[in-house]
Batch of 2 targets.
Target 1
Amino acid sequence: MISFALDEEQTILQTTVRKFAAEHVRPNLRAWERARAVPDEARRRFHDLGLALLDVPEAAGGAGAGLIASTVVHEELGFGDAGAAVALWAPHLVPAALLSLGDAAQAAHHLARFVEDPLALGAVAWSEPAGAPLEGFATVAEKRGGGWALSGKKAFVVNGDRASVIVVFAQVEPGRGWEGAGAFVVDGKAPGVTAGARHETLGLETVAASSLALDGVFVREEDRLAAPFVDGARRFFARASLMTAARQVGLARAAYEYALGYTQERRAFGKPVAHFQSIAFTLAETLMDVESARWLLWRAAAVPDGKLDLSHVAQAAVHANEAAFRAADNAVQLLGGAGYVQDYPVEKWLRDTKTLALSAPTDQLSQLAVTGLALGQPIDAGLPSSALQPIYT
Ligand SMILES: Cc1cc2nc3c(=O)[nH]c(=O)nc-3n(C[C@H](O)[C@H](O)[C@H](O)COP(=O)(O)OP(=O)(O)OC[C@H]3O[C@@H](n4cnc5c(N)ncnc54)[C@H](O)[C@@H]3O)c2cc1C
């Protein structure tokens, strides 16, 4: 049976987060942007509502809600403020990585601090400033008495300059591509870890990101995450993509509703501008974008855990990015002069949606995945394999 409705529990959750976003997030959109941070009080509230570790299994201290519930939460937060949505959840990229790439004991051990401390900060480092080799990472992990030594450079790492725990993706077996990569849990204060200055960004100012240098950083054997890397990274990036898509749906809905309200109030040539046909068409197209993006997202998320369809995930991710960009762009256009000044939120949404769309994987890689999967090509770790490159490049 096909259902386009949330169940009772999901509806209660949606109402709770909608209230949280309306009362605590949207009113602070500019203040938090200027402060370049979400205050600790909001992070505590987010944690106390059980939202921080929503999709972490109950056995590991989370709420054990499914993926649909998480997309509902992130849509509502994205509606409130996409910057806050990323900042509030960013530490929980670590639990997502632990659950995707670690075994049960590793996840339980490292998750404990996120369950207990609402202000615990984590980071996951995959991107590299040098650009990726054909497959795999330039950052290397070498065997060193009882563990591993990690060396290399990472970029754009959210919370990289402040995380107490960082999951680092590195190459264990050079020449074996993604199959030869691994994930390691690194203490953010370990000798050899140096964070660069915080990046100045286009949007999402509440999110602190920086480069990271690793110089022979020692990691214990038991802190190498145990799952085969390709399967684990595929799960990790797929889940991260769905959460980004959910924020984009929320942002798109925010832009649509704002433009709808504004164009009914604003009058030109004797009537509300919403009553001009071209503006009505734009509003209708924006609404269709919002709705279709949500349906693709829910289709991708409505699967038993671990059984995500990569093509569905990639389609949802790309469409949400494009829909949100069009919605924010349309909102700026429909507000006219009010669209570009900071007295109104729409210029921020345009900057935020573009920034969100650049989190991993990019639209190009997702689109390669969609067509590659349709052609039966190998798609490793959610990224195209070298076998796919000659077809498209
Ligand atoms: C808000 C935000 C949060 C982020 N958080 C993190 C984080 O916490 N940790 C982290 O490690 N990184 C993070 N990133 C970085 C992000 O994951 C990367 O920027 C993204 O994956 C792109 O990688 P890149 O910058 O190396 O682009 P490149 O790989 O250099 O790509 C450059 C361009 O080429 C395109 N391209 C690359 N390969 C192909 C191909 N095979 N075919 C066609 N086109 C291709 C890309 O789509 C892109 O348009 C974040 C980025 C943003 C914007």
Target 2
Amino acid sequence: MNLVSEKLLRLTQLRKQRPQYAEIYDFYSGLCEFLQDKDASWLDCSPELQSWPTRRQAGFPLLSRDAVQIDVPATNQFLCQLIDSLIELGKEGGAELQLVRQAFTSGQLASDQLLLACLEKNREPLEAAATAVEVPSALLEYVCSTALAFGLQQWRNRTPQPMLDDWQEGYCPTCGAVPSMGEFGGEEGQKRLHCSICATSWEMTRIKCSYCGNQESDSLEYFTAEGDSGYRVDICRKCSCYLKVVDSRELGEGLPMDVEDLNTMHLDLLAQKEGFAKGKIDQKS
Ligand SMILES: [Zn+2]
Ligand SMILES: [Zn+2]
């Protein structure tokens, strides 16, 4: 079963467990159904594999901007289809999405530059483009990062990936993005982090804040929510960041982590109410 089918299956299970999230699950299922038969050969990567062992030791992720090739006309075509699907699925933002669509079709927006800005977590080009088209920058960023995530995940699926066993950074070894979720798995409850963009996962020391690297156990805590077994929120009192963690020993291995992320939105609200933020990292690129 491919990644998109796994997500659809999990969404069907969760819709029964948490009917109050049905509207969000329907939207995300619709997006998954749209992506299910789409091709992403408009994005390809040719990372410098020979030098990566050295760069990796210094904390550089596999993909730098130069390693990513984006076919602009094919990407624009994909983006237009994606936007049409979002307009059909959403209840709001249709007029703004039409403006974004037109701007990609007319060449006013450079899709390759905006996807690369998402890869580099560089908000400036995204904000400038959003101002030019007169749409909220969060909307433009959502469209571009959805496309980038799909392109990178498809590239990872069709390309053998290098070993990542000695990576100990709190950001993704492949694309440099922050993790969306953590996971405890295996017999020993080994901690893994899951990238929010390219879906790479990598091992991480259990008693360590993935954002600031803090390893002092008295400032690393966690909380759980009642009736929510299998999930917890790790918090770091040093940098005031949090990370949601799935316990796969309880919920089963191989869950699609972006769906688990959606399914635990209430934990984001709880953590944020307590003054904790989703972590951001200034990684090397
Ligand atoms: Zn990644
Ligand atoms: Zn921290």
